[in-house]
Amino acid sequence: MVLDSSGSMADDDGSGSTRMEAARAAVSTVEDTLPDGYPTGLRVYGADRASGCSDTRLVRPVRPLDRDAMKRAVDGVRPKGDTSIGLSPHKAAKDCPSPPTAHSGGVRSC
Question: What distance in Å separates the CA atoms of residue 41 and residue 94, rounded to the nearest whole number?
Answer without folding.
Answer: 11
